[in-house]
From TrEMBL:
Main location: membrane
Family: Belongs to the cation transport ATPase (P-type) (TC 3.A.3) family. Type IB subfamily.
Keyword Transmembrane assigned: yes
Protein keywords: ATP-binding, Membrane, Metal-binding, Nucleotide-binding, Translocase, Transmembrane, Transmembrane helix
Organism whose genome encodes this protein: Brassica napus (Rape)
Protein's recorded name: P-type ATPase A domain-containing protein
Domain of life according to the entry: Eukaryota
Family annotation (InterPro entries): ATPase_P-typ_cyto_dom_N, ATPase_P-typ_P_site, ATPase_P-typ_TM_dom_sf, ATPase_P-typ_transduc_dom_A_sf, ATPase_P-type_domA, Cation_Transport_ATPase, HAD-like_sf, HAD_sf
């Protein structure tokens, strides 16, 4: 996120001298050489006249300048030549003009001090500020292995653990379903699932989570995780281009190119402003003697117009303005260290403008790890002419319902589907195959199922099955009386209404599934923080029914709830609330059914471990840790950053005014103008680095 004012690369392709790429870069980038030059100039200007005998002052000053000037003058002159050759007039050109004009005017000390201070500010910005502010993408790339030890498999695609043989394969060529051997000290190259073995891993460099984690068979391990001890065999779940580490690298690099509005404006304004400064400086030099009777060259009695013009050029150069957006880069880095990835500095501006935040419920405010509490036949399970459910029907109905639901939801990512599949594991259930399938987002799904091993005689033929919300299942019944009876049965369930409900309709037989989801333990604290210091309007947007939505809302401290929402309803609510509230809206979701709402929100947060590729693509902020504690931190960081940027701009403009006007009026010598100008740039850099600290 380096401003163009400090960018040299644009001119390299136009003027590819070997000297340009070696000696000037060496002189420009080394802090000790720049400091040595500054010390020599300061010694020549301040120490020599007072500590050295008069006869030796001038020779010693000249000696110091002969040594110091090349250390800063070579890179400055070549930068200016390259920029002018490329048709650019920017800060480098202004600094070089002012410095070398000072030399020709007999003020070599001031000119040299200007260049050394300018280089020092540049090094502090680039090496100490800019590099510290960025996620170390290069380090992540270097730490990620280029190859993986892919285990050879036998005919049934299972590794032979008695005689392991493997080959080295480039990580870009590792296929999903392959098995990889990861030893102690090695890094997991792509997202995998532990197939065999145990190990202690760390993901600190990915999510900021310091505590080591235990990885055992069945656990998911993200690409980039480091194996601290143990040896494990992992099964590849995602190719390199979809793995966690590659996504972090890509998003971080994209964030650097997505500049906030103020930085884009400063980049465009910089060159125009620099040209205006040059024109004004020339005007002061040539028109000053005409209108104000200043001498063209300085005299003992009065500073000349050329001297004043040089002072104005130094003072008015927008160095401090150019580095003002450094605060965005430091904020992005600070968030990344907490496991929060921002898609550019403009996200921080948008966050700071938001006054409302909406949360999805399942998987965001709650654990998302639903557990099946009961399966209750409620309609159509009569035996003979008896319209009531008989006890002898219940065990078989439960088995057939669970078998059908598990078959329909196999491989799903939806929390209800995952809960039912997990609940079916280890149970003696009939084998069910799904013949056809249709999904209705946010509502449910329908399928034609075939039971191979029948529990009831009804299960021996193809049957129409539908699974979804109460509204979805009842809408499939043509009879209004049947729909009413099903709703009444749900409301009068002996298990109560505080559970998450799903209905299964199997050839007009309806079964009510009760599931429970607990709020995340950290959520009440997060909501309290957003209410107390964030002063945000907080609401829940969920597709769940009213009683369960309010159960969770009351537990976590949310007072505004919108329930029974389909994805398109969430989208409309986000749009309407954003329009009516007069400010931006933040949407936080897990990314399964929240894609449209996340895209429409001013800023969309998504839990990256749970999110789909579409949700990650439309979201603005990715929470790498599987919790929402990063939300208040990110909002506080956005407010801190906007404050820092405003402070930086105020400092830069104030120092330009304080130095420029007195310089034109002849009150400031060039040396003080240099100190004010470059001191302001250093002050802005140091103020921006405060963004690396956590917001108070």
């Amino acid at each position: 996120m380096e401003p163009t004012a400090f960018t040299h690369s644009s001119s390299l392709t136009r003027f590819p001298f070997p000297l340009k790429a070696t000696l000037p870069n060496f002189l420009r980038e080394h802090l000790h050489l720049c400091c040595s030059s500054a010390v020599l100039f300061i010694a020549a200007a301040a120490a020599c006249p007072y500590l050295i005998p008069k006869t030796y002052i001038k020779p010693l000053q000249n000696s110091f300048m002969i040594v110091a000037f090349p250390l800063v003058g070579i890179s400055a002159s070549l930068d200016a030549i390259m920029d002018v050759a490329g048709g650019k007039v920017n800060i480098h050109v202004l600094m070089a003009l002012a410095a070398f004009a000072s030399v020709f005017m007999g003020n070599a000390l001031e000119g040299g001090l200007l260049l050394s201070m300018f280089n020092l500010a540049h090094i502090v910005f680039k090496s100490r500020g800019h590099r510290r502010s960025m996620v170390d993408v290069k380090e992540l790339k270097e730490s990620n292995p280029e190859t993986a030890l892919v285990i050879d498999v036998d005919n049934d695609n299972v590794p032979n653990f008695f005689d392991l043989s493997y080959k080295s394969v480039h990580v870009h060529n590792v296929e999903v379903g392959s098995y990889i051997l990861v030893g102690t000290g090695e890094i997991v190259p792509v997202d995998c699932q532990v197939y065999q073995g145990n190990a202690t891993i760390t993901v600190e460099h990915l999510t900021g989570e310091v505590k080591p984690l235990e990885a055992k068979a069945g656990d998911i391990v993200p690409g980039g995780a480091r194996n601290l001890d143990g040896r494990i065999i992992v099964k590849v779940m995602k190719a390199w281009n979809e793995s966690t580490l590659n996504r972090i690298l890509q998003l971080t690099e994209d964030a650097n190119s997505n500049k906030p509005k103020i930085q884009r404006w400063l980049d465009e304004f910089g060159e125009i402003y620099s040209k205006v400064v040059v024109v004004l400086s020339v005007s002061i030099a040539f028109l000053g003697p005409v209108f104000f009777k200043w001498p063209f060259l300085s005299t003992i009695a009065c500073r000349g117009s050329v001297y004043r013009a040089l002072g104005f050029m130094m003072a008015a150069s927008p160095c401090a303005l150019a580095v003002a957006p450094l605060a965005y880069a430091t904020a992005i880095s600070s968030c990344a260290r907490k496991g929060i990835l921002l898609k550019g500095g403009q996200v921080l501006d948008a966050l700071a403008s938001c006054h409302t935040i909406g949360f999805d419920k399942t998987g965001t405010l709650t654990t998302g790890g639903l557990t099946c509490k009961a399966i209750e036949p409620i309609y159509g399970h009569e035996e003979g002419n008896n319209a009531s459910v008989t006890p002898c029907c219940i065990p078989n109905c439960e088995k057939e319902a669970l078998a059908v639901v598990a078959a329909m939801e196999k491989g799903t990512t939806h929390p209800i589907g995952r809960a039912m599949v997990d609940h079916s594991i280890g149970k003696d259930l009939p084998s069910v195959s799904v013949e056809s399938f249709e999904y209705f987002p946010g509502r449910g799904l329908t399928a034609t199922v075939n039971c191979v091993e029948s529990v009831t005689e009804d299960m021996s033929k193809l049957q129409k099955a539908s699974l979804g919300s109460v509204e979805f299942i009842t809408s499939l019944f043509k009879s209004q009386d049947a729909s009413r009876k099903i709703k009444d049965a749900v409301n009068s369930s002996s298990y109560g209404n505080d559970f998450v409900h799903a209905l299964l309709s199997l050839d007009q037989k309806v079964t009510l599934i009760h599931l429970e989801d607990q709020p995340r333990p950290e959520v009440p604290k997060v909501i309290a923080e957003l209410k107390s210091w964030g002063r945000l309007r907080i609401m829940m947007l969920t597709g769940d029914h009213e009683s369960n939505a309010w159960r969770v809302a009351n537990a976590v401290g949310i007072d505004e709830v919108y329930c029974n929402l389909k994805p398109e309803d969430k989208l409309n609510h986000v749009k309407n609330i954003s329009r009516d509230s007069g400010g931006g809206l933040i949407m936080v979701g897990e990314g399964i059914n929240d894609g449209p709402a996340l895209a429409a929100a001013t800023v969309g947060f998504v839990l990256a471990q749970r999110a789909s590729g579409t949700a990650i693509a439309v979201a603005d902020v990715l929470l790498l840790r599987d919790n929402i504690t990063g939300v208040p931190f990110c909002i506080a960081k956005s407010r801190q950053t906007t404050t820092l940027v405003k402070q930086n701009v105020a400092i830069a403009l104030t120092l330009i005014l304080l130095a420029a006007l007195p310089s034109v009026l002849g009150y400031l010598p060039l040396c003080l103008t240099v100190l004010l100008h470059e001191g302001g740039t250093l002050l802005v850099c140091l103020n921006s680095i405060r963004g690396l600290n956590d917001p108070s």
